[in-house]
Amino acid sequence: MSAPPSAPVLPPETGEWDGVTLVDQLLAEQQRLTAVERFAQKHARTDFPVQSRYYRDLVPLDRPAPGQQYAFEVDLDSCSSCKACVSACHSLNGLEENETWREVGFVIGKAPGVVLQQAVTTACHHCVEPGCLQGCPVAAYDKDPVTGIVRHLDDQCIGCQYCTMKCPYDVPKYSERLGIVRKCDMCHGRLAAGEAPACVQACPHEAIRISVVSVPAVRAEAGAGARLVPGAFDSGYTVPTTRYRSRRGALDGAQPADSHRLHLEPAHGPLMVMLVLTQGSAGMLAFLAAADAAAPRLTARAEFPVLVGALAVLLLGLAASTLHLGRPLGAWRFFLGLRTSWMSREILAFGLLAAAAAGATAAAGLAPASPLARAAVVAAALLGAAAVFTSVMIYVDTRRALWRLGPTLRRFFGTFTSVGLLAAGLVGFWFGAPPPAAAGPLLRGLAVASLALAAAIHGGELLGWRRALRDPANPAHASAVVVRRHLRGLSRARVAVGGVSALLMVVSLGTAGGPAAAWLAGALLGTLVGAVLERYVFFTAVVAYRMPGGV
Questions:
Q1: N or C, where is the chain less crowded by C-beta within 10 Å?
Q2: SS3 13
Q3: H/E/C letters for each residue in 170-187?
Q4: How far apart are CA 74 and CA 246, in angstroms?
């Protein structure tokens, strides 16, 4: 026990007698308290939750200051992979049977005389620049300006699932039953009441805690190809704030325990149909605009039927896209994400394209081959190309290797050109009825152009897969392995469909008029089937990024 307030004490840090105040004495006494005495003081207090004595030291006492935010901090050396954190998160947040907001994986490594198996517990990293927030078209995410916690606003979500593609850590989870996405919010309600999140409370080894981090420091650490743990995505993309600590250093040489597991991703059937139809429609408009400029007399009677066909295909594709949404009635709020989301821009672009195509169709119906109608066609064609580009950027912006800019441009504008060319030419021939003298050369030229384009696109893609399969350093290598393991039969079917389409085009070269159109119609059907199969590969063969070691 310390001396009475009036008596001088010997401050332990100076070793000299001096007169001190009561406050000085109490502070000095606190520094000399043992762990048992500190525990007794906390146990005597009744203004905290009963369990707080177990986790109080694992959450910060003060809210973050400007330039700071909350973050998970994980002591890897203390994690035993018991998954108590997973169970507690699932139970206390009322998740569905197969829904998980926190997961446990493993990284493994090998060095001379040492074999490493390290458990890694992971949840939302509450990034400084969240990919989910930036990609959401309806502003269904919010980053708290004080705590930095990234929350999902369930009532705002339309279930487009774009955030699941944008997040490189597989954090947002889609609920088929609810039609929305949900994710970890660091149990912000508990934190606001001075209580620890479920995972922090449940860990028997105190491996998880909440800390306050400096945002500028986190940004600095995320540079130069830094990763949270081996196998995680480049931290420079979203600047995650979770801190993994280990006395064994940076786990050099380790790799995800699941690195050999390559499986198919969801096919997103409505998106497959939407992409093929909208790109084909935009291609029809572009082909019509080019034909109007090159041979206005030949295309005068075909202008209106081609525009009607392009508009119908476009509307069918947009209708198919709504089947992908969990809550399609909320899609009108797309304008909320225009500043950051390519999906918002795509919705706007195709909305404008539909209006422009309808206007061009009306103009062509009221004043065929007039300057106004042709100007409207050109405007619609330009909008169509811009809309297809926004579709390209939706996938490029996810940073997935298979969805890089060059290959995605070739795939999408290949469909734009091949389907648009055949569809516009055939619709124009059937309903526009060009002069008999021009019909033969027109259809033969169309067949030659389509055949050359299909050969270039499909042949280039097959060569690309072969190169990627042989080169492990190729960004598309893992996707090429997926195609070989899981999509070999589909790839052969696609080659067969392409061969039949090419054969029909060749047969059409030896005929003229109606028979040639019939052969090319079969080729168009084969081209559409091939495009849908290509989209299936596009979605299922992509390697989605996630934290390492999971299922």
A1: N
A2: coil
A3: CCCEEECCCCEEECCCCC
A4: 9
Q: How far apart are CA 415 and CA 473, in angstroms?
A: 28
Q: For the residues of 141-172, what is the DSSP string, one character each? A: EEE-TTT--EEE-GGG-----HHHHH-TT---
Give CATH 1.20.1630.10 domain extents, the chain.
269-540
Fold of the domain spanning 269-540: Formate dehydrogenase/DMSO reductase fold (1.20.1630)
Fold of 68-256: Alpha-Beta Plaits (3.30.70)
What does the radius of gyration of the chain's CA atoms come to, in whole angstroms?
31
pLDDT at 53: 57
The pTM assigned to this predicted structure is 0.86
Q: Give yes or no for a contact between 8 and 17, defined as CB atoms under 8 angstroms apart.
A: yes
DSSP per residue, 436-466: HHHHHHHHHHHHHHHHHHHHHHHHHHHHHHH
How far is Cα 322 from Cα 331, in angstroms, rounded to an integer? 9
For residues 383, 384, 388 and 389, what is the CA-based torsion angle, rounded to 10 degrees? -30
Give alpha helix (H) positions in 236-370: 269-294, 296-299, 303-322, 342-366
Distance between CA atoms of residues 351 and 353, nearest Å? 5
The maximal CA–CA distance of the chain, rounded, in angstroms, is: 119
Q: List the structure tokens of 3.
A: 């001396």
pLDDT for the residue 253: 74
**Regions of the chain where pLDDT drops below 50:** 1-17
C-beta separation of 270 from 323 below 8 A? yes
Q: CA 127: distance to chain centroid?
A: 15
Do 174 and 162 form a contact (C-beta atoms < 8 A)? no
pLDDT, one tens digit per residue, over 348-391 is: 999 999 999 999 999 998 988 788 988 999 999 999 999 999 99
- Looking at the chain, the domain(s) classified CATH 3.30.70.20 span 68-256
